[in-house]
Hints:
Layout: E1 11-14, E2 35-39, E3 43-47, H1 51-71, E4 75-77, H2 98-103, E5 108-116, E6 121-129, E7 134-143, H3 149-164, E8 173-178, E9 185-190, E10 197-198, E11 206-211, E12 217-222, E13 229-234, E14 240-244, E15 250-255, E16 261-266, E17 273-278, E18 284-286, E19 294-299, E20 305-310, E21 317-322, E22 328-330, E23 337-343, E24 349-355, E25 360-366, E26 373-374, E27 381-386, E28 392-397, E29 404-409, E30 416-418, E31 425-430
Parallel strand pairs: 2-4, 2-5, 3-5
Antiparallel strand pairs: 1-7, 5-6, 6-7, 8-9, 8-31, 9-10, 11-12, 12-13, 13-14, 15-16, 16-17, 17-18, 19-20, 20-21, 21-22, 23-24, 24-25, 25-26, 27-28, 28-29, 29-30
Helix pairs in contact: 1-3
Amino acid sequence: MRLFISVLVILAVFLSGEARAKVYIDLSAPAVERIPIAVQEFKDLGGSIPPETLKALRDEIMDTLKSDLVFSGIFKIVDKEAHIEDPKAGLTEAETNFKDWRTSGADTLIKAGFTAEKDRVTVEIRFFDCFKEKQIVGKKYIGSPNSPRRLMHYFADQLYEELTGRKGIFTSRILFVSGKTGNKEIYISDYDGKNVIQLTRNRSINLSPQWSPDGKKILYISYKKGFPGLYMLDLRTGEDRAVSNKPGINIGGRFSPDGNKIALTLSGEKSPELHVIDLNTGEDRKLTDNYGIDVSPTWSPDGKRIAFVSDTSGNPHIFVVDLGTASVKRLTFDGKYNSSPSWSPDGKLIAFSRSDSGKFNIWVMRANGSGATQLTFSGSNRNPSWSPDGRYIIYSSSSGGASSLFIMQSDGTGARKITTGVGNETSPAWSPYLQ
């Protein structure tokens, strides 16, 4: 069974007039002013599907594009009512009345046309600078009509990289857990919560999904054999196998940055301890040996350290172990309960959950434990996970009752709810960049 949605874009070509490798936006600036952008109604260039299906398709891909543009933090959408260019005007630079678009309040412009058949959708899309009166990006995509949103995510990625010099995260994906079916099962969606697919159907308790570095496999905990075992699911082939199902507990699995090892917690003679298993050789290295409970490992991006949670000091706190020297350092000293550490992609920060009064909130600190800063203030918020570019953090929140997913910027601003349509979502994990 093939579980993962394969690459839907089977053709992406440059259209004439594209200006390459020019960075317009400096994301390191203290404040990035949003650029007014007009998105013209996509033109129907033909096809064989019914008119009502065609309209629904156009609405879906336009809504996806606008949502991605706003999420980027770069653009603000010019109201459609302000558009004054003749709608019959063509898509090319020569056919565009840039004066009309500037009068509409647009500094930039997107025009697109599409054709739709039963087995494919073709989108021709162009991005213009209205002041320079030049086309900056022009692409043509061909993909599946079953998931047309992916076409716009691909374009948003490429536009974002063209303007900022950094990879976009719009084709990234999210893993999460939901008990909608009456059992805790694992799901996957686009970064914005759309295109949801249920991955597990074992009618048991499935927890803590985590991505492999290449995004092709996931780790998860399951009680499908009656006890917590660690399993690996190949998203391309559907192969599902046990990584560790020793007597006792096998929890908290995380891939190393090179994908060759897994950190996890196993039952020990004294208490649950951290281990590292080599996937190639099967070698099992025990990292901790104490009377505390050591859980929730997270690798540093360079693969040299693992942060984890331990109650050896009394309350749960976050520690880090150096894999070269085996030395352990305590990072947190405040809070009654510190949990679910997550290392940022650049290795500089660790996000985590902290509770002082029974309700958890998301915090972030430097990798050495200094500079702890609270990001959320309405509990209960748990399980932070970084976007692959480090600009955003996704987390679960039950502050409104049932648990939902939220995304905020890494400084705690701009929190927004992600609607998957599943409900009661927990334990989100943001994918790496996907091929």
